[in-house]
Amino acid sequence: MTQKLLFLCVAASLMALGACGDDPIVLDGGDAPNNTPNNTPNNAPNNDGPNNDSPNNVVDPNNAPNNAPNNDIIPDEMTEFAGGDASGQWSGHVVVSGSVRVPAGQTLELLAGTYVEVATGAERINIDVEGTLLIQGAMGSPVTLTATQGWAGLNVSGTVRGGFVNIRMAERGIRGEEGSVIELADTTILECAQSMTLASGGTFDRTTIIGGSTVRISGGVLRMTDSVIDFEKPEEVPDCTKWSGGGAVLDHVRFTGCHCPLHFDAATEEVVITNSIFDGAAYPAMVAQMNGRFNGNHFLGGINHLLDVGGGINLDISGNYFDGGAPNLGSGDLSQFQNADVYETSPISGVGPR
């Protein structure tokens, strides 16, 4: 309610300014603030729609998850960007009505507190990062990328780095293409139809993903620490994550509230998962065609703690907690799971996000 009142107050203030003849600043031409370059014709490619496991799963913003952050601060000063190439610095409240492209070799910096919003009525607005996007949010002054409709998300073939960013209401929050570099911390992705697809992995520290469809990894290594993925649908489809290639280094994470928190159809690089919690699921882990180790984790509940879905497994599972007993392994070849007889009978302290 507080957020809605704040939005109405800001809207009323902007209307009052318009009545007095103070039009919003338009980011266009050499006089644009914060070193924003001239607009060029919109040549950003359209983003393919997400490959959702479960359609129509955008969270109603009026019924957001109870643990979703509610820290949007919308700056009073509004600027408009019609779309096209962008570099330099953005700050304040930026309303985007056309797709944005950060060209190769150039950098767009979003300063602390920047609130980027897709204009009402816009359709399929992308931010295509071919160069570098620096997100310079700060504690208490995050960067927000959001919309009420028409926000396709971030398409990254270049580099995205930074932290303290909220990505909301996108068709797909982040699409990392082959060759992309994505390094984010203190990030929240919520109310998106799909949070992420990654073709070259990425590094995410202290990241929270609420709702949406499966996080898909097809290449590179997904590195996550002190992070949460929660779809808030215990034991129900979709899966929280799914690998068709690449690998993983996960430490102190919790994946929960979905059909299967960890789903490996194939991992072409090593998988190392430690000090983490996988629960609220029909199957905490589904594995196939992979090499690696799961150590010091909690695998809780489910029909099987680990389910073999295709063989080709070489996995050390020593030192985990499986509901206080031996692991329930759904496989016709238990030799694929090394050290299955070495397990903890009491919960392990310090697991999960710190």
Can you describe this structure?
- The chain has 354 residues and is mostly beta strands.
- It has one helix spanning 2-19; strands at residues 25-26, 78-81, 84-85, 88-90, 93-96, 100-102, 107-110, 115-118, 125-129, 132-136, 143-146, 151-156, 159-168, 172-176, 181-190, 194-198, 202-210, 215-217, 221-230, 241-243, 247-256, 262-263, 271-274, 277-278, 285-287, 290-295, 298-299, 306-308, 313-316, 320-321, 329-330, 337-338, 343-344.
- It has a 19-stranded parallel beta sheet that branches. It has an 8-stranded parallel beta sheet with strand order 3-6-9-12-14-16-18-20, with no helix packed on it.
- The longest helix is centred in the N-terminal third of the chain and has 18 residues, at 2-19.
- The model is unreliable at 1-25 and 28-70 (pLDDT under 50).
